Amino acid sequence: MEFWLGGALGEGGALIWTAPSWQIGLSISLAVIAWLAALLTGRGRGGLRVIELIAWALALVVLTVALCEPVWLEDSGRTEEGKVVVLIDRSASMDVREEGVSRSASVDGILSTVQGTVGTSVEVFSFSDDVQAGVPAAYDGQGTNIGVALAAVADRYLGQDLRGIVLISDGIDRGALRKDLAEVGEDVSAAVAIAPELPGPLTVYQVGSAERLHDEAITEVVTGGFAFLRTPFTLTARLRGTPGDTLPVTLSREGRLVDTRDVTLGEDGSGEVNFQVTPTAVGRFAWELAIPVDPADAVPGNNTYPVVIRVVRDRTRVLQVSGSPSYDQKFLRLFLKEDPSVDLVSFFILRTREDFGAGWNADELSLIAFPYQRLFNEELETFDLVVLQNFNYAPYFEYEAMALLENIASYVRDGGALVMTGGDRSFDLGRYGNTPISSILPVRLGVSNKMASEEPFQPQLTAAGRNHPITRIVLERDGDADAWDTLPNMDGFNFTGGLVPGSAVLLEHPTAREASGERVPILAVREVEEGRVMSLAVDASWRWSFSEAAEGRGNQVYLRFWKNALRWLVADPEDRRVVVVPSRENVLMGSEVRLTVKVRDAGYGPVEGKTAKGVVVMPDGTEAPFEVISGPTGEAATTFTPTMQGAHRVRVQTGAAAAERGETVFAVSARDPELLDIVPDGKFLSRLAEAYGPQGRFFGPGDDGQPLLNDGAERNVPEKREVALASAPLISLWFGLFASLAWWVRRRAGGR
């Protein structure tokens, strides 16, 4: 019977139809149509006609059943010996070399021992922060988690008994299991509660030995994250190596050696060294600490430690020089003095050489002599900002006046900041035309006819002023123009010769015009090479403090204006018109870093369609050029993948002027996070095995003992058995029999 059915039909099976629903429906429909055709086209009556129709019906039923593809399905299974599961640590620390040999080299020998001993099916998995089937193709995993790997085995073989579980690792676990077992110490019951429940005995093989490991490393550098300008800060390097060894530690900044210190390691092989550094400029700077690389060093990549430190201003040092007492001088001095972030040095009501010419003795004068030579020769570089407030230099600069003014101009070009406010001793009234100061101001000097006006007026915000951070005096971006229109009038202004190219006018006179026809600039700014300059052609900004004070809301407009001005004038390199910003300051070698370029005009509005050409300067001096075009927001981005460690400086420019250039730095490290701790932890692996009691076994490095097995472990292997009835000989036999009978009867009745 098995032959005719295509196979044996066991008990407990089920008949299923495997054809798609449309095929089943179509088969039934065609069978009905065929039978009706036989009914309508047949001849004769009586018994033969009935036999013919029954025979056709049975033949069509058999054919329909075959087209519906019936299958007899039986669930069965068999019992086999339990499996052995092998977990191999594929983390990067497994590739560390000890005495010239990689730890992972011993994995094959252990695996051969296990397979030779077990004599049954072995399933191999590798793990780091996840679990993958098969022997590791490479040992480069990150975030090793033994607890997760063991739990994954328990989940995968839930409901089964395993003959054994084998763990091959150096014990450098980055997960919670290692930490938790260390915290419970010798408490066995707590360790048992922590260890994952497993479906079989556990055998742990340790690879790697601390005794054979030779590694000298800088394990950590403590910087505090940022430093203050002109304030010493400490870089602390922590080292690891052979106890008693003396290691020379070098500190360099972007390839230039700064200092070297020798450190003798303690009995535990650790040491520490401090470097004190005083930054002289704001911005991002890359520092690197390094120790020599021994030929036998297991991980040469951790012998250097690059870091990027951002230098900021703790306090802004301001020099305020006023030519006469005034409300403007008083208000500005009070603002600067009360700001805790400002270190103010202020001079006003100055003593001149005419005081001596009038016959007064030095001890008869209450004013101290103005130390102008010391200030503008020796101490100028110690200030972040110089404010010349209605100050005429001529009566006070008795000697070397042009040289001192040139010092101020050079100070600005090198990165300093200058403010000149209006008054009867300022701009052309202060005789600054044709002096070095005139070369750095945002407005031209040299007006010879009318130099000032005492007509009251209301300054108007320009298009550039709507974008510039200095004139942003309200929180709502579009409300600045209305706010400026409500401020009190100014009671006069200084005429100038118009705007210098590359400068921006933020406030202008509503009606008065220069000889060129342009409106008189009242508030103008300019970036001069590395420095910044602001000119304010009035001496009554103090009146702005009354706009909100009259309404009982304080003097916020005045404070916001000068705070904004102070912030912009002494801003760090990331607040320039052309800026490049890395997505990360400290980058792992081979990881992609995104470089975003921001382009703004002199008024700090976004510039669209501007081509910015840049270059990434690598530690060996080679350059990787790039080019981007700014979008509607003035921004563009590119990516760079570093291939060497050390400081990478990025320079970008949209033109030849200093204001059209920007730069930054990021540090690239070959320090694989997985290799920060490379000392094998046999104690952890041993305690892990002990947590399973008699169901756990531990073998140290070099020990190839046999794994612990549960020979009574069995597993049920489920199987499904199918018998395809559609192709059974009996189906063909029945169809042929019924179809032949129907045809024979039809011919006897005279049909065709």
How would you explain this protein's 3D organization?
The longest helix has 21 residues. The model has no long low-confidence stretch (mean pLDDT 86). 24% of the residues lie in helices and 30% in strands. It has 752 residues and is of the alpha/beta class. Strand 34 and strand 35 form a beta hairpin.
Largest sheet: 8 strands, mixed
Please, what is the oligomeric state? single chain
Strand content: 25-35%
Give me the side-by-side strand order of the main sheet.
19-18-20-21-27-26-25-23
Q: What is shown here, in short?
A:
With about 750 residues, this protein is an alpha/beta fold. The strands form nine sheets. An eight-stranded mixed β-sheet has the order 19-18-20-21-27-26-25-23, with helices on both faces. Strands 7-6-3-8-9-36 form a six-stranded mixed β-sheet, with helices on both faces. Strand 20 (about 385-390), helix 11 and strand 21 (about 415-420) form a beta-alpha-beta unit.
